[in-house]
# Entry
Amino acid sequence: MKKVSAILLLLLSAWTFQSCNSNSNKDSAEQAEEVNEAKNKPEDDSEFAVKAASGGMMEVELGKLAAQKAQSPQVKDFAAMMVTEHSKANEELKALTATKNITIPATLSEDHQKHVDDLSKLSGAEFDKEYVKLMVDDHKEDIDLFKEASFGAKDADVKAFAGKTLPTLQKHYDAAKAIQDGMK
# Structure
C-alpha cells in the first residue's frame, strides 16, 4: 500500500510540475491576455494594455542597448529619450491597469524579445541603421494602436491614457524618421 501511495504521489507531483512548466513556456503577453479573458475584461482594452506594455518595455530595453552599442551621438540621444519617456509611460500604464484590474505582461512578448536579441548581435553603424529602422516601424504601429484605443476603448481612463500618450509617440516617430532620413 505504501508503494502505491508513493507512486501516486510521484505521478501527481510530476503532473503538477508539468502543468506549471507548460504554462511558463507560454509567451508572457499571451498569459496576460488569458488572465484578462478569465476576468471578463473588455477585450479591446485589455489587448491594448498588453500590447502597449510589452511594446513600451521593448522601447526601454532597446534604448538601454542603444546607449551601449550605438555609434552616432544622435542615435544615443534618441535612445536616452526612449528610455526616459517610455519608462514614464510604462509606469503610468502599470498604475492604470492596476486600478482597472487588467493584467499586463511582466516581461517582453516573444516577438519583442526577438527584436532585442537580434539587435544585441549588432554594433556600430549597422546597429544604428537597424535600431532606427525598427524605431520608425514600431512607432508607426504604436501610433495606429494608440489612435484606435483613443477612440475605441470601452474604459474612459484607458481611452484618455491612449489619447494623452499619442503626441509623444508621434514625436518619437518624427525624430526616428528624421534620423533615418539623415542616414541615407
